[in-house]
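Standup, Tuesday
Yesterday: got the pipeline producing structure tokens again.
Today: sanity-check two examples.
Blockers: none.

Example 1:
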Amino acid sequence: MTYSIIGRDAETGELGVGVQSQAFNAGAGVPWAWPGVGAVATQSFTDRRYGWRGLELLSAGRAPEDALAELRATDELVEFRQVGLMAADGRTSQWTGADCVPDAGGSAGDGWAAQANMVASPRVWVAMGEAFVSTDGPLALRLLAALEAAESEGGDWRGRGGAGIVVVPGDGEPWERVIDLRVEEGNDSLVELRRLVERALAYRATNRATAGRAALGAERGLPERHVRLLALEDALGEGRIADAEAILAGLKAENPRWLDYLRVLAKHPELEGLARFLAARDRTAVDDV
């Protein structure tokens, strides 16, 4: 018993699902997504077969309405189910069974589909679509805005609980994820989910940046220790060896095992600058002896 939205980012091709419910652990069973294939929200006496098998059918080239019809045809409890499917190109199909707890229904538009049951009013699913369309930014934040809009209209009339967001890239392997976060329960589940999504997007932004990563990390509220590691990478990338030495000295003073960690990182092919820096320090230490 829940409300959810599936959506597509027309610029990046990302696909995603957002969900919130009074039910515990809703984020584990409702959202399903496969890069370059589609996304599914399966809820109301949740049958996960709609998620896994739905994506398989979309992958095989079935249209969303055909895939959903095939799954419904073999479901003895189909009138209890509520499902939304989206293909990678943004086409959608929805089903709300006659035995879903009221209020229950859905709405859909270009690249999105919202569905809800056991909610305060039909405004819940309508508000999700309105918020999704009117919100700018990454897909995860647009999905989150839709969930918050649903909650502002009364949401699940039992209260709040499990929430989650899954976003996958526009193309890639089935296991690839951009965002995969959930809060299992709690009255502030959407508040905590927003914190986690913003944190995940901050890590993603610093990982993709090529310069000024420490300043970006600090601005986005990443933990101070992580920002120091980013500052080390910035210093090495800009040739500020004295600054890098000072940062490393601070880390070692905190815990000498940081040097073990950095030596392992230096073996990664994308961190050649760190490898050269540590190798130069080792040569200097030998010469000093």
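Example 2:
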Amino acid sequence: MISKVAAAGLGLLFIGSSAFAQSLADAKKAIDAEQYQKAKSMLKNLTVTQADKDENFFYLGWVYLKQDYVDSAKTIFNKGLAVNSKSALNFAGLGTAAHIEKDNSTATTDFNSAISLAGKKNSTPFLYVGLGYLLPVSGSSIGPNGSAIAAADADAAIAILNQGKAANPRDAEVLIALGDAYRSQLKSTDAYNAYSSALAIDPKSAAANVAEGVLWRYADNFDDSQKQFQAALAIDPNYGPAYREWAETDLRQAKTDPSLYDAKVKEAADNYKKYISLTDYSVESQMRYADFLVDSKDYVTLQKVAQDLTASAKINLRVYRYLAIAAYENKDYPAGLAAMNKWISQAGPKRIIPNDYLYLGRLEIASKQDSLGVNDLRKAIALDTTQVDLYGEIAKSLYALNKYQEAGDAYHIYAQKSRLAKLTDHFSEGMSYYLAFSDQTDKAEKIKTFKPDSTLLVKSDSAFSYVERKAAKPVLTVVLFHAYVKDSEDNDRNNIKGLAKPYYEQYVQLVEAKGGTPDDKTKQSLVNAYTYLGNYAQNKDKDEAKALDYYTKAKALLPDDPQVKYYFAKKASGKSK
């Protein structure tokens, strides 16, 4: 009996000592594996049991940054500085927090302090200053693996990380971060060299294998990408980030090969579930899953995941962003509007990104709150004018609201600056400016002192001309509306210049070449062309026979057209002009 009790006591002793034996190295390994809840638990314990070690506070603060709790991180970093006022790492942490909050002045000051305190052979502060530049600014998604890193931030990271490399050439973590910085700017060769150097130093680095796999994904080399993820998992079968990056690689491959789409999307979902299972099912890993669901456009699952997360006691307010996006895409507009209003009103301006106001605007417009919607679409651009892809969404919404001049301006910026712009966007730009001029013409008929802005026609003309130059063959709608633009420029029928003549002639030729009976819409367009050409023949060419031919064709299509009836009435009375 005594021996059994003693054995049990000894077991408890070992269990207790095991818990306290968890080291900073264990916590860092958990951070690398994105097991943030586990790392946080270890580090909270270490800040109590080893309260005199400032690095324990730094890594705890770093976990808070990774989890998007910037205020909590700053509190912990300051505690670390209270332990050691010359803690280079905690200054690096504060600098990173300031950078995330777009406080560039404070970030620079704190980063400089970290570097000055680092020492000649200590590469770790250089590592975390570099990583600080690579973390996304407030409200963005993932850094090197997701959202674009500003070139200036990447350059700053590269410079600092190279200093870290000089301090300790065999620090594999510095080399991996350096590769991430190069990769963020699509400098693939430099990134590959950095990752290869890291693997040469530490062949058992799961992180370096994953990073190289992501690099191959950027080149759409999916086979080699998958091999690197498998290599990482051979080193550590529980290394969650390998499954996450594998899932995102599957998703990219699905988008590039329609024949594999269904299979790869399913594989991506399975891999992401494995990632979540290995990262302690924390709220944060679920949030990463939500990012994945947004990218894969699985809005039904996203709404369920987001709704479940709102019931969590440890809720991250950002979940309401996901709930709003999913609800909008699923046409659950009341739920989406409530979620987005909650996120924007409670998150604080530092966490709001342009896409938040874009979805808020779209939700408001879908809820028949048009004026509010337009204002919030404008806020989306005011927050970040470099987000040029958003102009396409804004332009579409403004066009749907008949805000044609503003839509034209948005389409113009989108068409000129976005790599996603298509010829249809240039056409929509031309249409928007033309319709804006038409609206002003209607206004001028009611208010005699008002004059339409003729520069709208110039802008429309330019957009349509661009489409005609770039299109593989003439497009009926483009030719027709280009004719309307030139027709509007040539509005004095008694002194007609014929600006629209070649466009109307081309339109007629294209329609007649198609053959068959035109539909009602095409009939009206043809009549517009015939009456213009007939008027030109009559008043400019003085060719009554040709004018009669054009008006006769128009009459055959629409005998009750006002211009047709006017022409034949005048002709019958003997007054041809």
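Quick observation on example 2: The two ends are 124 Å apart (CA to CA). Confidence is low (pLDDT under 50) at residues 1-21, 139-147.
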